[in-house]
Automatic annotation (TrEMBL):
Name of the molecule in the record: EF-hand domain-containing protein
Listed Basic and acidic residues bias regions: 107-157
Signal peptide residues on this chain, from the entry's feature table: 1-28
Gene Ontology MF terms: calcium ion binding
Keyword line: Signal
Keyword Signal among UniProt keywords: yes
Source organism per UniProt: Pontiella desulfatans
Region described as Disordered: 62-157
Length: 157
């Protein structure tokens, strides 16, 4: 009985090893379809949304947290022509190009651009808040007018 069990274990392990080897050989022989997998709309370029969705799916499948900021930065580094899309060549690049050292003038320009973008965002939020406030005020006045009209109509009786 022990011999029979031993033979089955050895056979099971051998089969498992053979399947593992076959899988590894098949995956090594198959070309990577990463670009095609990312390019959901098949337009021969990968958008930032497609890149992010693919990365998020990979991380979630592996049970790991997805760092959206890091993924976005990775996309931006790879997008060397800064057109908002990755070409097959940009995606296949082994290492994204390293940022060169900026001159003081470039640093100041970058800081000013960031300040301007922040100010524009704050102005936009403020404008939206003012718009909402005006809308609430207008609705309150309309409601007040309707109430007054209703009271006036009631006084006519």
């Amino acid at each position: 009985m022990k011999k029979n069990l031993h033979e089955r274990v050895v056979m099971s392990l051998s089969l498992s090893f053979a399947l593992t080897c076959a899988t590894l050989q098949a995956s090594a022989a198959a070309p990577s379809n990463t670009f095609q997998d990312m390019d959901q709309d098949a337009d021969e370029r990968v958008s930032k949304d497609e890149f992010m969705a693919y990365g998020k799916n990979l991380k979630e499948t592996a049970g790991k947290p997805f760092d959206e900021a890091a993924a976005g930065a990775s996309f931006d580094k790879r997008d060397t022509d800064q057109d908002g899309y990755l070409s097959p060549a940009e995606l296949a690049a082994k290492k994204p190009p390293q940022n060169k050292k900026m001159t003081l003038a470039e640093q100041k320009q970058k800081i000013e651009a960031a300040k301007k973008a922040k100010a524009e965002e704050e102005a936009k939020k403020k404008k939206e808040e003012e718009k909402k406030k005006e809308e609430r005020k207008r609705l309150a006045e309309k409601k007040k007018d309707e109430k007054n009209k209703s009271n006036d109509d009631g006084d006519d009786d």
